[in-house]
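Margin note from the TA: students keep mixing up input and output lines. Inputs are the sequences; the output is the structure of the whole complex. Example:
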Amino acid sequence: EAGVAQSPRYKIIEKRQSVAFWCNPISGHATLYWYQQILGQGPKLLIQFQNNGVVDDSQLPKDRFSAERLKGVDSTLKIQPAKLEDSAVYLCASTRDRGAPLHFGNGTRLTVT
Amino acid sequence: DQQVKQNSPSLSVQEGRISILNCDYTNSMFDYFLWYKKYPAEGPTFLISISSIKDKNEDGRFTVFLNKSAKHLSLHIVPSQPGDSAVYFCAATPDAGNMLTFGGGTRLMVKP
């Protein structure tokens, strides 16, 4: 089966600019996650979708971050405006069932200068 | 506050020997624990898991041990191989769900 697809792989922007990341989960996986991984730290959950509904977004900085999952498949994560501390790898993951291991994409490395 | 901690940022082991990676947690609601392995420029991949009703789970060269009273788990790799060189993340979740809390990772280097 094809894995979780993410694009772009790398993005460099200046602070206060906006940026968007795209994720296509594994076919049939109803649950989708966005994680932020800052260098030297473990991944931190930003938002969880079940189909096209948000299950948990308690750790999403909603003043600048937004995410959507239209039609319950692809998802986009947006940052507007970006700050220096947003520099990180943004990982998308999906899973078919509750309790099943997450499948991660290769991530988008964002550098904010 | 860090609910899942991996206190060793790095570990170096000789090929063929045992690698032991440790993880501590503070949240007593966690009841399902996982280990993920990450190579550079790739996403984490699932390695092995354990439920709180067990104290050991084995899969080939990989064994995870859970000590609930100490809130501690460890991953043993025997024998270690150069291809095992990667960053290993411990993760935990309550209710055997998917809301994972990750530790900071341990970089394992297996020398030939």
